[in-house]
Amino acid sequence: MIIVMNPEATKEQLNMVIDKLTKVGLKVHLSEGSTRTIIGVIGDKRFVAELPIEAMDGVEKMVSVTVDYKLVSREFKQEDTIVDVAGVLIGGNHLAVMAGPCAVESREQLFQSAEIVKKCGAQFLRGGAYKPRTSPYAFQGLEVKGLEMLAEARAKTGLRIVTEVVDVESVPVVSAYADMLQIGSRNMQNFQLLKTVGKTNKPVLLKRGLSATINEWLNAAEYIMSEGNYNVVLCERGIRTYEEYTRNTLDLSAVAAVKNISHLPIIVDPSHGTGRWKLVSPMARAGIAAGADGLMIEVHPNPAEALSDGKQSLTPENFAITMQEVSNIGKIMGKVFI
Ligand code: PEP
Ligand code: MN
Fold it and tell me: Which of 101, 159, 175, 246 has a CA-to-CA distance to 40 between 20 and 30 Å?
């Protein structure tokens, strides 16, 4: 349920409505837009229905939200959300690029990657210190050592750090080093993890689950926001289909759909979305043309030697070309690197 206050509603009238709701145990979330305030109500719908909210001063209407998420929806907040990650903005007319290796492998590999990423104009360095690998025998990541290297790379370059957190236990340590917490596909419905990152004040990059519907994905974002953390950026990274030529099927229609039904920023990951480096640049361009607010791209100083995802990683040369192409499409779409 959402309650729309009328544009002339006073602060006192708003507080009276909030009081009425919280007294019966309902939780409220405010969206203060440029013209009006909207109250998102969380809790048993029956309690809200029984309250005479629409008769209260300052209330324009009460709307039953047709979808099962609220805070994520455009009904709750009409303006696009812009997420601030340690001073770098994602959303609106900002074009954000997160690039770097799949996994942090060594200081040398990470620092070389960071230099390339910085030189080409991306604002974020990505790299997994904790890797959720399909095989338990595959490289699992350098863990805290990897986080320390990421923080060193930030100090050297000024790049913001986005890195994956794979379980509830490691949320504090990853939060201590990262500027943005990544929730990977395999954890998109790890509800305890979503609630835990929702209690932090770190921006969250929420990747779409391997086989998640858009509705399930937006509900995952709702889990984070319902705990009070509104700084969520979505990432389309392809879904599992019958197609085998590509690693996943990059669902660019999801970008357009999410823009319609949610106010949250969304970026595209053409690396995991295709699994093939040759397809990364065309799909990066297509993602921005579809309305995405940015990209996540795997780059490695020497993809042939990568410990994970070398097949989909761009060389420094190809990343430079891709960034130029993406920047051109961005300008057409009214989005620029800032
Ligand atoms: C990653 O970005 O490192 C990753 C593992 O991606 P995904 O969760 O989309 O598979
Ligand atoms: Mn990867």
Answer: 175
User: Does residue 209's CB lie within 6 angstroms of at least one atom of ligand 1?
Assistant: no
Residue holding tokens 């919280």?
22
Question: Model pTM?
Answer: 0.92
| Partners of 180 in beta bridges | 162
Q: For residue 171, give the 3-state DSSP assignment.
A: helix
Strand partners, 99: 125, 297
For 59-68, 176-185, 275-284, which range has the lowest pLDDT when averaged over its residues?
A: 59-68
Structure tokens, 99: 């690039």
Considering only CA atoms, which residue is closest to atom 10 of ligand 1?
Answer: 185
Domains, the chain, ranges and CATH?
2-63 (3.30.70.1140), 83-332 (3.20.20.70)
Per-residue pLDDT of 50-66, as tens digits, reads 889 999 999 999 988 76
Residue 184 contacts residue 213 (beta carbons within 8 Å): no
Cα–Cα–Cα angle for 51, 56, 58, nearest 5°? Answer: 135
